[in-house]
Amino acid sequence: MSRGTxxxxxxxxxxxxxxxxxxxxxxxxxxxxxxxxxxxVRETLFNWLAPDIHAARCLDLxxxxxxLGLEALSRGAASCxxxxxxxxxxxxxxxxxxxxxxRDRGHCHRIGAINFLEQAADRWDIxxxxxxxxxxxxxxxxxxLGAKQQVTDNGLVYIETGxxxxxxxxxxxxxxxxxxxxxxxxxxLFVVRSA
Length: 195
Description:
Elements lengths: L11 E4 L9 E4 L10 H11 L7 E5 L5 H8 L4 E5 L3 H13 L6 E4 L3 H7 L4 E6 L8 H10 L3 E12 L11 E9 L2 E8 L3
Parallel strand pairs: 3-4, 3-6, 4-5, 6-7
Antiparallel strand pairs: 1-2, 7-9, 8-9
Helix pairs in contact: 4-5
């Protein structure tokens, strides 16, 4: 589903654009507010991540369709935690993992992103933060990741926001590595250095 006007209830498709599942199309049911990261943005993002994705432990916060985490697994990530509070949406991610025979590498968590981070004791090499736009969720997510040191040293954090949204204050040691805009989306990649 794009940011356009797909009919609600009609199946949409997302396409894995690289790695072992390249070209695979996965169907999902559109849900209000669900806007999977476009192929164009994903292509750029995973070019940025290419040197670091192999064997990485990933976190797809606000997973939605799960396309960022699935793309990471396709390109050689060791594992990915998918966090999504909507049961039906998370069920679709679970179905995709089953279809791709990747349930041993993809782990689904039905819980809100902030609650998940508050409870989690894990650390990740790559974190994807692509929340619903305009709801002020980026700042609290990044603050928790920083306060709990949940990103490994030299780990990467991807943040996708609306182009008109101001980026909140980020934890110490987060350095902007890449930044681009595509239409109404701004996307950035940060390197996390130990404080």
